[in-house]
C-alpha cells in the first residue's frame, strides 16, 4: 500500500470510495473492545467526509523514504534526550521488535510494551498511557534548556517520528484533561 499511496489523487479517491468504509474498518476493533465510542467514530467520519480531507493523512505516508538507509548514506544522529517509546505488542504493521531495533538510534530509551494492544495504543488505553508518561516525566532530572544547545535546523526521520508521537500523546492528555479523567498532582 505504501507504493499505491504515492500515486497522485488516486489514493484520495480510493479512500473515499464506499463512503466511510476505511474509517469503520480502521476503528472496528476499538469500537468492539469499547476503547472508543460510536460518537468518536462519527467524528472521524465527519473529519474525512470529503475526498480532499484524506490528502494530509496520505501525505504523512507519502513523505516516508522507502529506500531505507543504504551503505552510502550517513546514519541518523543518535538521540541523546531521554525517550519513552510506548507501543502495543500486537500491532500487525509494526512488530514490537522494531521498537527494540530503534534503540540503537536512541542513547537513553525506555521501551514500554503494552500487552495485547496494536497501533492505536494511546487511544485504546489512554489512562494507562497517561500513567506511563506521567511516571516517565516524574523520573526525569528536570533542567532548563541551555542557550548553548544549538537548535536543530534539519528534520530527520526520527525527529518526525518523535514529533508525531508527541502530538499523539499531547492529544490524548488534552482529551483526558478535558474529560476530567486526568488529575494533576
Average pLDDT: 75
Helical coverage, percent range: 40-55%
Characterize the biggest β-sheet.
Answer: 2 strands, parallel
Query: Kindly, what is the distance between the CA atoms of the first and last residues, rounded to a whole number of angstroms?
Result: 44 Å
Q: In terms of structural class, how would the helical and strand content be classed?
A: mainly alpha
Shape: globular
Give the beta-strand count.
Answer: 2
Element order, helices and strands?
Answer: HHHHHEHEHHH
Q: Uncertain spans, ≥5 residues at pLDDT below 50?
A: none
Number of helices: 9
Q: What Rg, in angstroms, do the CA atoms define? A: 18 Å
- With strands numbered from the N-terminus, the spatial order across the biggest sheet is 1-2
Q: Which range does the strand content fall in?
A: 5-15%
InterPro entries: AB_hydrolase_fold
Protein name: Alpha/beta hydrolase
Provide an overview of this structure.
It is a single chain. By secondary structure, this protein is mainly α. The chain is 47% helix and 6% strand. The protein has a two-stranded parallel ribbon with strand order 1-2. The chain is globular and about 50 Å long. The mean pLDDT is 75. This is Alpha/beta hydrolase. It comes from Cherax quadricarinatus (Australian red claw crayfish).
Which key phrases capture this entry?
185 residues; 6% strand; mainly alpha; two-stranded parallel sheet; globular; 9 helices
Amino acid at each position: 500500500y505504501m507504493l499505491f499511496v504515492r500515486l497522485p489523487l488516486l489514493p484520495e479517491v480510493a479512500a473515499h470510495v464506499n463512503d466511510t468504509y476505511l474509517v469503520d474498518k480502521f476503528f472496528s476493533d476499538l469500537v468492539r473492545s469499547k476503547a472508543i465510542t460510536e460518537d468518536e467514530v462519527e467524528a472521524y467520519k465527519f473529519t474525512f467526509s470529503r475526498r480532499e480531507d484524506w490528502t494530509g493523512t496520505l501525505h504523512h505516508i507519502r513523505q516516508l523514504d522507502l529506500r531505507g538507509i543504504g551503505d552510502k548514506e550517513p546514519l541518523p544522529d543518535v538521540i541523546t534526550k531521554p525517550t519513552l517509546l510506548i507501543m502495543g505488542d500486537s500491532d500487525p504493521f509494526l512488530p514490537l521488535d522494531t521498537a527494540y531495533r530503534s534503540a540503537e538510534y536512541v542513547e537513553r530509551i525506555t521501551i514500554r510494551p503494552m500487552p495485547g494492544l496494536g497501533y492505536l495504543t494511546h487511544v485504546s488505553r489512554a489512562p494507562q498511557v497517561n500513567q506511563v508518561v506521567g511516571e516517565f516525566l516524574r523520573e526525569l532530572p528536570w533542567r532548563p534548556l541551555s542557550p548553548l544547545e544549538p537548535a536543530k535546523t534539519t528534520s530527520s526521520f526520527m525527529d518526525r517520528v518523535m514529533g508525531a508521537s508527541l502530538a499523539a500523546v499531547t492529544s490524548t492528555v488534552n482529551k483526558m484533561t478535558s474529560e476530567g479523567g486526568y488529575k494533576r498532582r
